[in-house]
Design brief:
Helix content: over 70%
Order of helices and strands: HHHHHHH
CATH topology of the largest domain: Hypothetical Protein Yqey, Chain: A, domain1
Radius of gyration: 18 Å
Number of helices: 7
Strand content: under 5%
Shape: globular
Length: 150
């Protein structure tokens, strides 16, 4: 079942259960998918990779907005954003913990024969492709930087 089909099913369930907040989050995901499908040059059916990127972008936006609202003292808006982030995260693959991430990045560094900070671009290019949906870009970058300097 594609992401779009799963979202549609979950929208129906949320409507029947009268869960307005969940419905809002699901509709925002569906909207992003529809926009991506209708973009110039896009295929009618999105690849799983494109779907993952859409979800990661949406989740990141919600998380950052929630943190910003919380910092500004707007807890009502922060809670809404964090709730939507939680709903969107259900559709993302399980995130790697720091130990798993570190081990995977060590293997990538060895595979590209990276020796220092100047090789960060080579490592990041491969790492972001290989770890798409499994780890946050900031986390990947900070661990790669640490490993290459150490």
């Amino acid at each position: 079942m594609s992401l779009k089909e799963r979202i549609n099913e979950d929208i129906k369930k949320a409507m029947l259960a009268k869960k307005k907040e969940e419905l809002t989050a699901l509709r925002s995901i569906k909207s992003a998918i529809l926009l991506a499908e209708t973009e110039k040059g896009a295929q009618s059916e999105l690849s799983q990779d494109v779907e993952m990127k859409l979800l990661m972008k949406a989740a990141k936006q919600r998380k950052e907005s929630g943190e910003l609202f919380a910092k500004e003292g707007r807890n009502d808006l922060a809670e809404k954003e964090f709730f939507e982030h939680e709903i969107i995260s259900k559709y993302l693959p399980q995130q790697m913990n720091e130990d798993e991430l570190r081990e995977t990045l060590k293997e990538i560094i060895q595979s590209v024969s990276a020796t220092g900070p100047s090789d960060m671009g080579k490592v990041m290019g491969l790492a972001t492709k290989q770890l798409a949906g499994k780890a946050d870009g900031k986390a990947i970058s900070s661990v790669v930087r640490e490993l290459l300097q150490g």
